[in-house]
Amino acid sequence: MPVTTSLAQLWEREELPIRDALYLADGRAFTVALDEQAPGGLTVNDSFDLDALLAKDPEWVTSIVVSKQVELEDSDGGGYVCCGEGSWGSEGLFARLLPDGAPAWVIHLERSNPFTDIDVRDHVARFRSTSGVTVSVALADTDFVPTPWPTAP
Q: Whole-prediction pTM value?
């Protein structure tokens, strides 16, 4: 099956735009901001046109490296979650991948530092960076939904 969306093409080339953003498999993109008071530690803000951004400045991308990947149980929708970094050292990323390895969604943060740890509990994934940034996301389906980390029973 050919790679069709900009996100899929970028992911295949191991690149992402240098922007604090949520990129979705269907081509939509949104700015994001770290917010410790928000559910899951992240707010999703305004949408933007990823194709227009890439057309305006196709070189404004960073090389990415996935350093950790965790396979999800079928009860979490299957596929994988992964995390890693960009080429500038201050960048971090985490993503939800479908069973075939294609991205369902990807978060890139310019100043989070690399994300190196992933925990999965009670249908929630928690991603942690080397600077202590923590974001948690519901895994009920492949949609991106920031959610609080479940408390221990």
A: 0.93
